[in-house]
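look at this:
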Amino acid sequence: MTTYKQGDIILVWFPDSNLMTAKKRPAVVLQSNNLQTGLGQLIIGMITSVKSNFKCRIVEGIGHNSEIK
């Protein structure tokens, strides 16, 4: 099994909006198998080049205990 680490860029099958077809899309690994559940799992964020007018904020400095440093 391939081992991924935080920050790796990977290709994953991602379903289209009709949920009938899928394409390989890029994603960034946010958290690798640190959950220690015995299952190989990743938390990923999808990457897109499509710009939208949706405003969002990303808070920097959030640690594992969800406290802002």
About this structure: The CA atoms of residues 13 and 23 lie 5 Å apart. The first strand starts at residue 9 and ends at 15.
